[in-house]
Amino acid sequence: MSKSSSVFACQACGTTFPKWAGKCEACGGWNCLVEEAAASGPPKGLNDSKNRSKSNRIEFVPLKSTSDFQIPRRLSNIGEFDRVVGGGLVSGSATLVGGDPGIGKSTILLQVVCNLAAQHKIAYISGEESLDQVRLRAARLGLADVSCSLASETSVRDIVASIDKDPPDVLVIDSIQTMYVDTLDSAPGTVAQVRTSAQELIRVAKKRDISLILVGHVTKDGAIAGPRVLEHMVDTVLYLEGDRGHQFRVLRSVKNRFGPTDEIGVFEMTEKGLMEVQNPSALFLADRRDDMSGAAVFAGLEGTRPVLVEIQALVAPAAFGTPRRAVIGWDAGRLAMILAVLEARCGVVFGANDVYLNVAGGLHISEPAADLAVAAALISSLTGEPVPASCVAFGEIGLSGEVRRVSQPELRLKEAAKLGFTQALMPQTDKARKTGAVSFLRTTEIRQLSELLPLFEATKPQILRA
């Protein structure tokens, strides 16, 4: 009697195990192993010489094209979305959109497809909401009269059969975790179902030149739920980020085969949906006060776009003798490194103080160029001396206290000059390119972090090491 084989797959990372365990040894997750049917191996006799002669041989083509081929784009006329995807959706591409529950994924995609419906054929398939719920959202956004085809379905077999006969130009699946393939015994949302459903949808999308958009849930750690291989199967991966306490939403590209990565689009949540922000730097600095210590403006770069944000720091005596380090919007490890460099190389003592760091506006910064602005905000909070209101800062700090160069300083300075800033703290450069919009900026080139201390009167004996 044949024995049915099964494996236990981790729902967080996709690793399979022969037997159940409480903890996944690959990613360290607990209670995430689910029993699934084992995948069948390749057909027998694949390497047999008899079968090899019957197989179809592939045809190779030269790399250089004989014609001037350009990838056609489908523009949504939402500038921030088109910027993030690289200039519009590509026919035959697969895009994965992830984000926290209720952050606005379905809202922004409904706005995108309704804008595309003016020139393209659209199919919006929802596996989580009924048709009336989608219509209510469209009415709330003022899009009730748009010609867009809706469906509420979770069977991949029925979806593929429908779009294969009458393919749309753009297909939205909301969400991929609700889809299932009836040839698998596992429940919808498991690793096998998510992987197989996405593979079938991507296959028919590339065959029929459909721009496929998949909505993916995220785990408590912020990663897209399901196997990590799902991100490798698609062409573009977008994350919709933001704090529910702020009205800003950031659409970030972390993978794009047809455009730049780490590109961002900034939106504002309103009663009419997500509205694009043309100048995010001015919006992030709108509530900034000039006379407050512990705040510095960082001239950052997100993809190809310069963005100015305010970095806030608070240094206060520890209440219970154990100093606390809290960070929002930045890497906690880099904050610990900056504090260690300030103590070891500059003699500024933070040991008995709580340190709180926040990036205003709900934006998350991962660029090392923010080190100098963070150091300026920390010293300003410790000394009580405000950073000059017309000053921006950027530069990477090394462990020996040196301030290293960063990419595209001219672009950062132009954005600062456009918003009315007149001073800049920056690393030393070989070539001074002060032309055009940045010719009137007064730049202070800092080679060592210790050169930052006199600017904030940080030579007071109470903050230096004895």
Overall description:
- The chain is an alpha/beta fold.
- It folds into three domains: about 1-40; about 75-280, P-loop containing nucleotide triphosphate hydrolases (Rossmann fold, 3-Layer(aba) Sandwich); about 285-430 and about 435-465, 2-Layer Sandwich (Ribosomal Protein S5, domain 2).
- Helices cover about 25% and strands about 25% of the residues.
- The protein contains eleven helices and 23 strands.
- The chain has helices spanning about 50-55, 80-85, 105-115, 130-140, 155-165, 190-205, 230-235, 280-285, 330-345, 370-385, 410-420, and strands at about 5-10, 15, 35, 75, 90, 95-100, 120-125, 150, 170-175, 210-215, 235-240, 250-255, 265-270, 275, 295-300, 305-315, 325-330, 355-360, 390-395, 395, 405, 425, 440-445.
- The strands form five sheets. Strands 8-7-9-10-6-11-12-13-14 form a nine-stranded mixed β-sheet, sandwiched between helices. It has a seven-stranded mixed β-sheet with strand order 17-18-16-15-19-22-23. Strands 2-1-3 form a three-stranded antiparallel β-sheet, with no helix packed on it.
- Helix 5 (about 155-165) packs parallel to helix 6.
- The longest helix has 17 residues, at about 190-205.
- The protein is globular, with a radius of gyration of 27 Å.
- It starts with 5 loop residues before the first strand and ends in a 20-residue tail after the last strand.
- Mean pLDDT is about 85; it is low at about 40-45 and about 460-465.
